[in-house]
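Here is the promised in-class demo. Please do not try to memorize the tokens; focus on the logic of going from shape to residues.
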């Protein structure tokens, strides 16, 4: 599969089990980025949202 069909494999190291996500506030929006859990390479993929108002963390269930 190519990048337009599936975004799961890290182009840098070939890790095949998905990505972690990161959030960064910038210019009134929150940018969403992907981080490879194996090599740490981060990717900005153009995702942004204005729905996230703050980064208040509340513990949830552990999986």
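The designed amino acids, position by position:
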């Amino acid at each position: 599969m190519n990048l337009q069909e599936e975004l799961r494999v890290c182009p840098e190291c070939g890790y095949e089990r998905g990505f972690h996500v990161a959030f960064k506030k910038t210019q009134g929006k929150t940018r969403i980025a992907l981080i490879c859990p194996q090599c740490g390479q981060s990717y900005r993929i153009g995702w942004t949202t204005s729905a996230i108002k703050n980064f208040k963390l509340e513990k949830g269930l552990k999986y």
